[in-house]
Amino acid sequence: MTPSEKLYDAVMRLPIELFEAYFLVREAQGIRQLVAEHPYIGGDWSFVATLFARLSVVAFIVVLIVLHLVRLRPVRKYSDWLPKLAALAGATLIYLILLTPRAPADRLWDGLSAGITIAGAVLAMLAALDLGRAVSVMPEARRLVVEGLYRRIRHPLYLAQEIAAIGFFLQYRSWQAALILLVHFYIQLRRMDWEERILAEAFPDYAQYRRRSWRLVPGVY
Question: What is the per-residue pLDDT for 12?
Answer without folding.
Answer: 63
